[in-house]
Amino acid sequence: MRLNHFASVLALVGVLVAAVAAPQPAAAQVQGAVVTEQGRLAIRHEKFRLENGFEVILVEDHRLPLVAFNLWVHAGPRNEAKGQTGFAHLFEHLMFAGSKHVPRGQFDKFVDAAGGTDSNGSTNFDRTNYFFTLPSHQLALGLWLKSDMLGYMLDEVDAVALANQQDVVRNERRQTTENRPYGVADEALYAALFPEGHPYRAAIIGSHADIQSIKLSDVRDFARTYYRPNNATLVLAGDFDPAEAKALVTRYFGPLKAGPKPPEVQVAQPVISAERRLVVTDRIELPRLTLAWHSPAYAAAGDAELDVVSHVLGGGKASRLYGLLVRDKQLAQSVQVVQDSASLGSLFNVEVVARPGAKLDDIEALVDAEIARLAAEPPSEAEVARARAAVETQLLQRMEKVATLADLVNFYNQMAGDPGFVTQDLARYRGITPQQVSAAAARWLRKDARVSLHTVPGEKLLAADVPTPPPPRKATKGVGINADAAWRAKLPAASAAKPLALPTVRSFQLANGLTVLHSPKPGLPLVSASLVLRAGQSANPIDKPGLASFTAGMLTEGTTTRTGQQLAEALAALGAQLHAEAGAESARIDLNCLRAQVGPGMELLADVLLRPAFDAAEFERQRGQRLAALSQQREDGPTLAQNVAARALYGKAHPLGTAALGTEASLKALDVARVRAFWQAHYRPDRAALVVAGDIDEAELRALAERLLGGWAAPANSAALAPLPAPQPLAARTVLVHQAGAAQTALAVVSPGPRAGAPDTAAIKVMNAALGGLFTSRINQQLREVKGYTYGIYSGFQMGRERGSFGLYGSVRSDVTGAALQDIAREVTAMRKTPMGTPELSRVRNAVMLALPGQFDTNAAVVQGYANQWVIGQPIEALRALPAQLGSVTAATALQAARQHVDPARQTVIAVGDRAQIGPQLKKARGTVLELGPEGEPLK
Asked: What is the arithmetic mean of pLDDT over 20-32?
């Protein structure tokens, strides 16, 4: 999958970040790795190299008892041989398929059992990344796992593992490229930008033919060339003792043999001298314009200036193209502009999704005119300042979490050869002038140097199908690179664990009834806040679906004191993010900002909450946006499956039975008066909570809340909240939603479930983790790792204040739809029949319980956790009591939870796919099938 580099979020202008590559002070003296020294923000780190060339960067940070392990292998698609597109990404998958001392399927189970979070891998054009975060007492375990991946994968990988991961990756391609709107157009863009032989030409995911053609000998050759200690870097970020970390890194990685220096990749950046225009058809409803230029490589002259250009043109609601195309002309559904920086040359992209009826030629002409104006006339100082403020906040947010902090340090190390390059990086942005921004646009964004791609509705053209061969009958293991040692076969012991605790939160109430929840977190100068209300979808009148969502969406589009544009500019000047939306049972207004801007940021939050304008012209614009969004939902199989699942659970005559956006008929019937009336009735302090986490003390928060929200009064004659009506679920137990030509089947398996506060909540969580909640769950392992049917499939319980449900969601290969459902049914039956064994119970219980601190490692995560607790009507203390409750779950209580809450007789299956391909399979597996079109209409 194509992952954007984050050059555009690494610029911090006005606050210089210095990385100090010196030995670390004692742990008692250092709380966080990100500190302020002499008025400058600084990231403390230490870099060293083992004798075999293995690079190690230590980032000591004691804010939480966690350690992030971030291993970069300096190889990606830029290193693939001809005819092997997708190989680097396939290799990423194989790295998790087992090694000499970690049997196949056990790597992720070890991480789960230790309470790991953020465990995954990723591939971009320049590198492959393997990462997870563990509790700090599992430092040795993390290094044991990482060293075995890097040093002993070849000892274990075999033809069976290769064939399975080829299936998985091909399913990923179907899901992320072929079955995703605009996915085939993105591939076509790179083919037009880069010539044959350039390593960036093919999509990172690769083609079916190339993925399937990879042989075990290719895997071994690639590993011997690139997966050697002298071509890898490990960043440890978190709560550890540097001396202990150095000793353990040397023990685990020091004996690995260095390889020959990998071959240099030297490719000239392509030059486009005449505009290349192309049209791609896809199964979409909204056309899309993409303009792309070759631009300077990361940190080269012009790279930073084009980052600023991207913000000025398309960096959010205050940007020029958003204001012109979305707000004023109302021709566009969305605008995105990015300088996507890479090592062999970057790409500058403008992407505009059109509104229904808008012509891409007209949109392109307006974009061209705006680019020409920027090239001829420098932007204002205010525009450049807004770009600086945005990237400052985004950079600090990347430093908030040890996992992303580790990745940031590794990025600088590879892309600039210096993990402390942040100092020089920021200097690039600090000196940028409006004149330089204009000059960069004139120099790089010429019409004769670009690709113009129009994606329009039509047939999705895919390459000829490549059959999936039968799985190999015999597996022959290979010969490893590194000598074995008996001690490597033993799982390392953990050190003493620190007490398991969740962030503290204090509560107080204003005189008007507003509840305030406060979780102080000094350190990084960041604050997150959420004003959450009982004004979600469940409050919709039955005949007005979409009203709650429409009301929330209007809040940030103008107040009685600021127009929508003025509000966007005020937020951008602060570098703050403000967003409002309505969910199933609540509406919320979320704010993320710098500590220094918390006062002005909270003033803007209060403004949109208390003084929304509900302007008639803006209302009509939002109506058009929402109608277009409904058409976009019809393009996406997984979204369709979820929407139909809601109808199956609750029925059409229920507030939760339709999509949150509503329906075309309901949106057309709404008016400003109804939206204003909903706001007046449901946006009230006695049904609201303000949840705040970050670098702010209680006294300051109290003063802000009293000043800004103390005068907010509830309606004098408002009625109590009406209870939800009884669900009227579909009678059909199997529903097929026809999506012609779908490359996969999007599945949803749903049934009623328990509400919040169920006495067996802990047992439900542990049971679901084993069934479908974890990557290592029974269902995902069977369908992905054993059968190769899917890229991933997961289950979960929605336990709300007034509603509860169980759902299992994922996409499978179309030709195995029926077989996948049968496997799911077998796993559900087995979960309900026999109690878990001790090893499985211990693993999944720890996975849920020990991972809790890692799920509250940012201000936004803390806010979300406690805000959700308030929404579902449960006491705050219940969340902090959860670890002890999870620890007491037994095999018997988990079995009882499965028998009570996962009942196959009550489950409804929704399958979105091509009727000709999946209809016969569904009838064979499930019997009678109700067939619907994408609008929910019965098919003949």
From this structure: 43
| CA 602/CA 705 separation, integer angstroms | 9
Spatial CB neighbours of 448, under 8 Å, sequence gap ≥ 6 = 272, 273, 274, 275
Q: What is the pLDDT of residues 129-165, one digit of tens each?
A: 999 999 999 999 999 999 999 999 999 999 999 999 9
Here the tokens at position 662 are 């509503």
Check residue 559 and report its DSSP letter: B
Task: At 70, give phi and psi (nearest 5°).
Answer: -130, 100
Residue 184 and residue 282 in contact, taking contact as beta carbons nearer than 8 Å: yes
Helix (H), strand (E), coil (C) string for 919-931: HHHHHHHHCCCEE
DSSP secondary structure code for residue 390 in this structure? H
CB 476 within 8 A of CB 159: yes
**506-709: what fold?**
Cytochrome Bc1 Complex; Chain A, domain 1 (3.30.830)
Give the max Cα distance, the chain. Answer: 79
Sign of CA dihedral 627, 628, 634, 636: negative
Q: Is 127 helix (H, G, I), strand (E, B) or coil?
A: coil
Residue 81 and residue 870: Cα distance in Å, rounded?
54
Name the helix (H) or strand (E) containing 910.
strand 908-913
Which residue in 305, 265, 339 sits closest to 437, CA to CA?
A: 305
Burial status of residue 361 (CB atoms within 10 A of its CB: 0-12, 13-18, 19 or more): exposed
Element (H, E) at 49: strand 40-49
DSSP letter, residue 752:
E
| Section 252-280 average pLDDT | 96
Cα angle 183, 184, 186 (rounded to 5 degrees) comes to 65
Q: Which CATH class is domain 11-266?
A: alpha beta
- The domain spans of the chain are 11-266, 276-419+427-457, 506-709, 734-855+872-932
Q: Look at the domain 276-419+427-457 and name its fold.
A: Cytochrome Bc1 Complex; Chain A, domain 1 (3.30.830)
Q: Are 285 and 632 a contacting pair, CB within 8 Å?
A: yes
**Whether this model's pTM surpasses 0.85:** yes
Can you spell out the DSSP letters for 420-451?
TTHHHHHHHHHT--HHHHHHHHHHH--GGGEE
DSSP E strands: which ranges in 583-698?
587-594, 688-694
Q: Which helix (H) or strand (E) holds 799?
A: strand 790-799
Q: What DSSP letter does each residue of 12-35 carry, written as one string?
A: -SSS-EEEEESPPPPGGG-S-SEE
Beta partners for 43? 19, 34
**Chain CA centroid to CA 173, Å:** 18
| pLDDT digit string, tens, across residues 504-546 | 999 999 999 999 999 999 888 999 999 999 999 999 999 999 9
Torsion sign over Cα 99, 105, 110, 112: positive
Q: What is the pLDDT of residues 36-73, one digit of tens each?
A: 766 567 788 999 999 999 999 999 999 999 999 999 99
Residue 446: closest CA among 603, 291, 643: 291
pLDDT value at residue 38:
63
Q: What is the rounded CA–CA span in Å between residue 797 and residue 799?
A: 6
| Fold (topology level) of 734-855+872-932 | Cytochrome Bc1 Complex; Chain A, domain 1 (3.30.830)
Q: What one-character-per-residue DSSP string does 272-318 give?
A: --S-EEEEEEES-SS-EEEEEEEEPPTTSTTHHHHHHHHHHHHSSTT
Q: Give the angle 273-279-283 at the CA atoms, nearest 5°.
A: 150
Residue 892, number of CB atoms within 10 A of its CB: 11
Question: Three-state DSSP class for 819?
Answer: helix
What are the φ/ψ torsions at residue 72 (nearest 5 degrees)?
Answer: -105, 125
